[in-house]
Amino acid sequence: MHRRLIVPSALAATLVLAIPASAAEGTVGAPGIGDPYYPASGNGGYDVSHYDLRLKYQPATDLLEGTATLVATPTQQLSRFNLDFALAVSEVRVNGKKARFTKTGEQELEITPSAALTKGRPVSVVVRYAGKPSEVKVNGWTAWARTPDGGVAAQEPDSAVWWFPSNDHPLDKATYDVSVSVPDGTQAISNGVLQSQSSKLGWTRFNWRSNKPQATYLTTLAVGKFDITTDKTADGLPVLNAYSKDLGDNDGAARASIERTGEVAEWLTEVFGPYPFNALGGYVPNVTSGFALETQTRPFYSPKQFANGANVSVVVHELAHQWYGDSVSVEGWKDIWINEGFARYSQWLWSEKEGEGTAQELADYTYAQHPADDSFWTVKPGDPGPDNQFAGAVYDRGALALQALRNKVGDETFFELLKGWPAEHAHGNASVGDFVRYAEQVSGKPLAAFFDTWLYQPSRPKSPAADASAGARTQAPAAREAARRAAREVASPERPASWKKIAATNTIHDHR
After folding, report:
1. What average pLDDT values come out for the chain (512 residues) when binned by 10 residues?
2. DSSP letter for each residue of 185-250
3. Helix (H, G, I), strand (E, B), or coil: what is residue 317?
C-alpha cells in the first residue's frame, strides 16, 4: 500500500479553467515534499495551518461533494503549487480569485494563481469538487472503504487524497473543521469534538473540530448508522465511541474493549505524561478489513480485531499512538519506529501492569522466537524501507530495542525518557536521530552504538536479558542471581499469559 512517483504525461487528462492569465514572476512549488519512501507525497512551497471541509455524502450512491478551504503560508515566492487530490475538481480560487488548475497523473492538482503568492503572507485556497471515492483508483487501489450503510476513510500512509485536497504528508500538520451533511438517520464521525449537529429537509449536518495540529493520514471520516456512547474522563475529557449497528457477533467484544478507552488513557498519562488532545474515543464501522489505525483522538478499529473476543491490548496500542505518532509525528516515513516500536512496547507495559507477563518476559519470549538466521533480524526498524515499513520486526524488534534501553539506563531514566519525549516535541515532528540524541542527553550516556546495533544492523543483537545480566553486576547478590537465572532461561522462556492477545493485534497495520 505504497505510493510511487507519478510522472506527468502529455496524455494525462487535464481540466483547465479558461481565465485571463497574469502569471507573475515566482517559483514553482515542488510536486513532492522530499520523502524518499514516497516521492509523490506532499508538496513543497507552502505550509497549511487549517483545513475547513464542508461535505455532503450520499451513502446510497457513494457520491461525495465538497468545498475545501485551506489556509496556508507560502514558504517561497510561488507562481504555481500542487495539492494532492484524486477526485474531479470544478473550481479553484486563491485569495478569492479564480485560479487555473490542471490535474496531472493520478493525484496531483496543479494550481496557478492569478498573481504570484508572496513568501510569508497567508493565503486562502478554495477547491470545489465531487466524485465517488470508492471508484477512484490511485496506483490501482482506493483507501475509501464502502460499507453497507456508508463509507470510511482510514488508511496509512494515504487516505486524504480520496476525500479532500491537501499537502499529504505528516510534516505539514494543521487544525481541522470538518462539516458533513448526510441523510437523516445516518451519522458522520470524525476527529476531535462534535461542535454541533442540525437537521433540515431530510439531511443532518455534523460539525467536528480538531484544535491541535493533525497529520492528513490521521484525519478520518466515517459515515453510517452507528450506536454512539458518550462519557467524560475523570479529568473532564469528552469520550465518544461509535459502533456500527450491524457488527453482529463482534459487537459485544468490541464494546468490552473500546469502552475501556478512558481507563487506558488514564493509565497512559502515568507512563507518557498528559494526554495531548481535547477529545478521546474510538469507532468500529462494518468494514471487511482487519487493521486498526491511530486516527487522531478517535482511533479506527476493524471488527475483525475482536473476532476472538475482547482485546484491550489493541486499544492500548492505538491510544499510545496519540503520544507517539499523533502528537509527535514522523519527520519522514523512515522514522516509523518512533510510532510503532513505542506503541508495541506500551502493550508490553500494559501486560506488566495487568500481571500477565512483564515487559522483560515478553522481550525474552519474543527474542527466543527468532533465531539468528531468521529474516526478522534483517529488517532495520530505524530505516526499514517502504516495503518493510509495517513489517513485524518494526514492532517487535522495535520493542526489544526499548527493553534493551530500559535495562541499559535503568527504570528511572527510561521512564523519564518516555514522558519527556512527547513533551519535548509536542504537536510537532521528529526523527529517530532526534530520539537518540534526546536519550543521550537525558541519560548522560553515549548511546549511538547501542541504537545502531538494535535499529540499523541486519543481524541478531545480544539479548536484552543478557544486557540485564551484565547490568546486574552493580546489584545486590540476590538480584544478581535472579538476573543470571533470567539470562540462562532466555533460550527457552515460558510464554507470557498476554502473548496471545498481543499477537492477535499483529494485523493492526496489515493494510493490504
Report:
1. 35 35 71 96 98 98 98 98 98 98 96 98 98 96 96 96 98 98 98 98 98 98 98 95 97 98 98 98 97 98 96 98 98 98 98 98 97 98 96 97 98 98 98 98 98 98 70 50 53 91 80 50
2. T-EEE-SSEEEEEEEETTEEEEEEEEEEEE-GGG--EEEE-EEEEEEE-TT--EEEEEEETT-GGG
3. helix
